[in-house]
Design a protein that fits this description.
There is one protein chain. Helix 1 runs parallel beside helix 2 (54-82) and helix 2 (54-82) runs parallel beside helix 3. Helix 2 (54-82) links the parallel strand 1 (36-39) and strand 2 (85-90). The chain contains 6 helices and 4 strands. It has helices spanning 21-31, 54-82, 104-123, 142-149, 154-163, 173-184, and strands spanning 36-39, 85-90, 129-136, 195-198. It has 204 residues and is of the alpha/beta class. The longest helix has 29 residues, at 54-82. It comes from Martelella mangrovi. Its EC number is 1.1.1.-. Keywords: NAD, Oxidoreductase.
């Protein structure tokens, strides 16, 4: 895999509640020029629809899709005015692409995010702004580790996550980052409203 550009040292990180519309608007205003908007906040509810309380349903939609509504609305006007920009929404193969057990609320939110991606891409298609969705499969991450640790049998749960991957391993964060860099770069200048599946063959 090609080395990714060393951009992290130049980025100032701030804590932000992306479900707070006012906070999002303030953060985008403070950021100044936004060339790339990468929406990657999310939350995974574990359970079927019968296990999902109204509060969990609302939280899932708030974090997985409404947060992107807030960030896109805040950043898009300046991109349109400038005639350029790339918006990358992290959806999932657990969405309108595929279903897996115990992900009713999560899958609904991520499917809605794909719909939002395509709708915004179509609305701004002549503006110079591109909007795409990255759809990972199961990826090694601190979030996954926390969810596995919370289950009754963490060792078996990890084996189960790996077993559903045809390649026999989880995705790596660098692999998802490389896909995001593609969407952010001029190499994808003719690509908008698309979903890029990076799932190790999970949905073949």
């Amino acid at each position: 895999m090609a080395d990714l550009p060393e951009i992290a040292p130049a980025i100032e990180t701030v804590a932000l509640d992306v479900t707070d519309a006012d906070a999002v608007r303030g953060a985008i205003a403070d950021a100044g020029r936004v060339d790339i908007l990468f929406n990657c906040a999310g939350w995974v509810h574990n359970g079927t629809i019968l296990d999902c309380s109204e509060e969990d349903w609302a939280r899932s939609l708030d974090q997985n899709v409404t947060s992107c509504y807030f960030t896109i609305r805040a950043a898009l006007p300046q991109m349109i005015d400038r005639g350029s920009g790339s918006i990358i929404n992290v959806s999932s193969v657990v969405s309108s692409i595929s279903g897996v057990p115990n992900r009713a609320a999560y899958g609904a939110g991520k499917a809605a995010l794909i719909g939002l991606t395509k709708a915004v891409a179509r609305d701004v298609i002549r503006s110079g702004v591109r909007v795409n969705a990255l759809c990972p499969g199961t990826t090694a991450s601190p979030s996954l580790d926390e969810r596995i640790a919370a289950l009754d049998d963490p060792e078996q749960a990890r084996r189960d996550f790996i077993a559903r991957q045809p390649m026999g391993r989880l995705g790596e964060p660098d692999e998802m980052a490389a896909a995001a860099v593609y969407f952010a770069s001029d190499e994808s200048a003719f690509t908008t409203g698309q979903t890029l599946i990076v799932d190790g063959g999970q949905t073949i």
